[in-house]
Automatic annotation (TrEMBL):
GO terms for molecular function: acyltransferase activity. Its EC number is 2.3.-.-. Residues 4-167 form the N-acetyltransferase domain. This is GNAT family N-acetyltransferase. InterPro entries: Acyl_CoA_acyltransferase, GNAT_dom. Pfam families: Acetyltransf_7. It comes from Nocardia xishanensis.
Length: 167
């Protein structure tokens, strides 16, 4: 049962979160390595120093070989990330290892994270490429597009910011 395979993301998960950030940011398309991410501030800010105050995440999969993670981190205006909406709303990153996709793990992790974040944060936001099938997952869980948030992303396609109210 998938719910039994979920646990909170702890500081020791930082190396695994770098791997998941690699998937979430589609870094392979740009010929990057996982190590390269640490040199790109626009991406490294999602994982660097994981376990800081306010960080909240879920790791999914077998204990000895996790295969997915969903996490939120709060960014303030001076350090606004791609899906920034305001200083009180943390931003979501989520990925499942390619071999484990489409089996419900992403949904289970996100549902758990939303439950954990409710009462702690007023909302969560994210930035997603308009053509990413993950948009259907976000819409199912109640995320809605932020009007006027479409931007041209690093890949030259369009990304949109989505927000899920938690209260
Ligand atoms: C998005 C992702 C985390 C979902 O996890 P998952 O375990 O595959 O998802 P589930 O099996 O619970 O749910 C399936 C939903 O995931 C999304 N999805 C499925 N395959 C996907 C893929 N290859 N890429 C992106 N999203 C996918 C769809 O929304 C799908 O819903 P649908 O069945 O209505 O089309 C995972 O597919 C992934 O890591 N994708 C690549 C990284 C990514 O795009 N991250 C989000 C960046 S904003």
């Amino acid at each position: 049962m998938i719910s039994a395979l979920l646990r909170p993301a702890v500081p020791a998960d930082e190396p695994f979160l770098w791997e998941m950030l690699y998937e979430a940011s589609h870094a392979a398309e740009q010929g990057l390595t996982v190590a390269d991410l640490e040199t790109i501030p626009a991406l490294s800010r999602y994982v660097d120093g994981w376990g800081a105050e306010g960080d909240l995440g879920v790791v999914g999969g077998p204990a000895e070989s996790p295969c997915g993670a969903a996490w939120v981190r709060l960014f303030t205006g001076a350090n606004a990330a791609y899906g920034y909406v305001d200083d009180a709303t943390p931003e979501l990153a989520i990925a499942v290892a390619p071999s484990a996709r489409g089996t419900g793990l992403g949904t289970a992790m996100l549902e758990r994270l939303v439950a954990d974040a409710a009462g702690r944060y007023p909302a969560m936001s994210l930035s997603v490429r308009e053509e990413n099938p993950a948009r259907r997952l976000y819409q199912r869980l109640g995320f809605a597009d932020v009007p006027g948030s479409r931007i041209v992303n690093r890949a030259g396609t369009t990304s949109v910011t989505m927000v899920l109210p938690l209260r």
